[in-house]
Amino acid sequence: MSHPSEKAKAIVNSFFRERGEELEELHDAFGMKMPRPKTFSWTSSEPKGVLQGSWDADDDFVEELHKFNRCLDEVSRQIPLDFDPKSCQWSDVLEKLKDGNKSLAKRMERDETWWSKGGMWLADLSSLSPALQAIPDDLCFLHGGLALVLHLAKTRDATKRNIVNTFEDIASALAIAGNAAEHSKDDAPLNSALDTLRVTLFKTLPPLIKILVPENTRMRISAPFQSTRADRLLDFLKTDAKRVEKRAQALNDRHASEAAMITKEHVEDIHTGVQDINEQIQEIDTTQQALKNMVLRQLEGQDTMHKMLCDFFGMMEYDQSQRGTATSAPAFSTRARSTSPISPESAPVPENKIASLQMILGVNDKHVSKDINYVRRQSHEFDAKCKSTGATILLNRNFQRWTRSNGADFVHIDGRPERTYDKTSPVSYFCSQLANRFKGGPYTTVALCFFCGQHVATGDPLEGPRGLMRSLISQALRARPTFDLDELDLEAFEGTHESIPFEDLCQLFRLIIGQFPLGYTVYCIIDDINRLERRDEWKPDYWLIMGMLNEMVGECGPNLCFKVLITSPARSKWLSEVPVPPDRRVPVQEGGLQ
To answer: Which residues form the Nephrocystin 3-like N-terminal domain (predicted)?
Structure first.
């Protein structure tokens, strides 16, 4: 048998030290004033199963322990056993219980008399075994006694039923007490009941063994009449076990009641929180619905968006007229390379040279109006909810800042459509109306626009980044009759735009935009720039355009108001690599702002 743990030693030491005076009523061995022990130890020098203490020599308790072990020795000598009572573990106790059940089952099969069956009871080993294993290890010196009692009981019909019932009650009570101790370890009544049960077990086992194994002829003759005494001993154990079970059950019930109360409070708190959240959500839904209803009412007419833009920019123009205009130096500094056909030194250029450049660019002067009209015709595909996208853009602070500012600015409309579109989206529809509004303004307002979604077909003359830049340059040249392009070497272009390096196209655009006179406002609208992400070979030119526009906005002086608007009706894969700053982004969804 392995040595008990320090916890087991502490339990035994504390019990006998603190409750010595109460033990007199439980057992004759304690009918004396017990001296307080100096030490209490388990030693390996004694035979296994012997509890050895260091009390004074006249200590009756130590003698009683020796009697307990001598009882085990005597039984071992009188009856052939297939186990050693002094080295038993709980597994041996359970094994003896199993043997007893087998023996009882065989007897019931052989004996068909009603009175024999009435005096026997078959224990449910499946329920008793787990409970018996719950008995604490500090009772390890009782293993042999329990195993011996169960072993002897299988041949004693008179006491078998009571013994099995009693030890089932003990195991069940200890299992319940173990559960209660998990949340009530310091409960004094429970600990007291457990201590009493331990002592009663120790008190009862030796006389019970003597009843089952008579020591002499006289006791063997009287053995059939000892069942009453055995029942009385077992009643002590039952009483103590019931006391433990009752207290443990009360603790478990109290803990369950407290847990139920706490759970109820938590559920009520959660319910209250959910109600608050639902009320807030309802308020938000009410506000959004009111906004949608307002927008839908405004979109009932065919020209509603155009009227809204007119009203909106009418207010913007009034604000600008109140602020007045400013004068300053040229807006852009050109950075021409020595190898470029574009020279920064310029003089007035004849109109025929501009016409020649237009021929080299090869851009149809009708393509912009065709694109705008096509997008506007597609508006019948959108319901009022989709058309309300434009109205919500007008309500965005970043867009309003872009329209109101006197200087250069940049804004990116980042759309998240609820469904896919072929070539035209609700954002494209908004851009077409916006471009029309700008083109219908005073001559000092220049609107350059390009709808990338209208030029996605293979072989389209304006496909890709090169087509975008050629279109913007061509539109800018048509906005004024003269530009300072005298040093532009058209012959170096060899009569075709394909021979112009893309960087030179960008430099030419910067040069032209930088020469618009004081007081002009140039709007550059590029819709559905995601279409340029279809081919990886376009990526360097794509980023060259984005970098150029960003630099132009940053370098623009007070002379010129250059405003760039780029849209992505769907999520832009390339722009997500270098996110647009929040103050320059207008995130929208169909039917409302994000």
So the answer is: 389-568
